[in-house]
Amino acid sequence: MSATIHPTAIVDPKAELASGVEVGPFAIIEANTIIGEGTKIMQNAFIASGARIGKNCVIHPSAVIANVPQDLKFKGTEKTYVEIGDNTTIREFATLHRATIHEAKGNSGTKDGVTRVGSNCLIMAYAHVAHDCLVGDNVIIANAVQMGGHTTIGYHATVGGITGIHQFSQIGAHAMVGAGQLIVKDIPPYALIGGSPATFSGINRIGLMRRGFSEDAIKKIRTAYKLLYNSGHNFTDAIREIESSSELSIPECKLITDFFRKSDRGVIGR
Questions:
Q1: 132 is catalytic
Q2: pTM
Q3: Range of 86's domain?
Q4: Per-residue model confidence (pLDDT) at position 104
Q5: Residue 176 resides in a domain
Q6: To 10 degrees, the CA torsion angle through 233, 170, 154, 226?
Q7: 131 is catalytic
Q8: How far apart are the C-alpha atoms of 75 and 84, rounded to whole Å?
Q9: 232 and 154, same structural domain?
Q10: Burial, 162: exposed, middle or buried (Cβ in 10 Å; 0-12, 13-18, 19+)?
Q11: Could you tell me if residue 179 is inside a domain?
């Protein structure tokens, strides 16, 4: 089954469209693009050079994939890319920009000239995924979230609408960030973030239950965070106590302590 292309769409002959791809009216697909099987490109979408889109994705009207980055260090001739995994949906007017090749510092974002969005993600309308960002699998980015460059968002994280994320920030796996936040510090795994200014508000217990975490694992995650935020210890001492506890010797708690140790911007407070 070949690709189905509306007669008003503009598709460069050098674009690689797999079997079952659908291209809607007035969509534009440039050369040096690869689109996987069963993906649907809806009307007026713009797929720029450097896009690598997986299987069974849906790119909604007026979304922009792989346009040049909004980075003054970008010279315009670099070969950079946007990679999108399988089964991911990009909603209306969302923008996902190519990476910038330069020496990236710290632990956040990508470092190989690729902006990455994982599989089974939902990027809602008007959201912006900036250059060199790394978005894990099963992530939900709500309407009008604005990500600075080199941001990392871990798998199964959810970011509420109209949230701004400072460049080089990290949001850990399974975290839940409430709507309308300004994120200037790193968000640890399993955390629930809310308030004004944004603060640690507990763990994302409902999200963890929905994803099949055991009550025992959830209890130990909560205990680890009580040591970090409620014990009176500073983060360094709390991490040592967590790591020395045989009761808390589980992969989930190790993910937490590793995140705190590797944070460049510092972890959000309570």
A1: yes
A2: 0.95
A3: 4-171
A4: 67
A5: no
A6: 10
A7: yes
A8: 24
A9: no
A10: middle
A11: no
Find the length of the chain: 270
Separation of alpha carbons 120 and 95, rounded Å: 18
pLDDT tens-digit series, residues 169-225? 999 999 999 999 999 999 999 999 999 889 999 999 999 999 999 999 999 999 999
**Cα(169)–Cα(187) distance, integer angstroms:** 8
The active-site residue, picked from 60, 97, 128, 131, is 131
Residue 236 lies in a domain: yes
Residue-wise pLDDT for 88-124, tens only, equals: 999 999 999 999 987 667 788 888 999 999 999 999 9
First vs last C-alpha separation in the chain: 55
Please identify, among 155, 171, 187, the residue that sits at the C-terminal boundary of a domain.
171
Catalytic residue among 149, 154, 160, 172: 149
Task: Yes or no: say if 255 and 173 are a contact pair by the CB < 8 Å rule.
Answer: yes
Interval 159-166 mean pLDDT: 98
Is there a catalytic annotation at residue 156?
no
pLDDT tens for residues 46-62? 999 999 999 999 999 99
Residue 140: in which H helix or E strand, if any?
Answer: strand 140-141
Check pLDDT > 70 for residue 26. Answer: yes
Of 132, 148, 150, 174, catalytic: 132
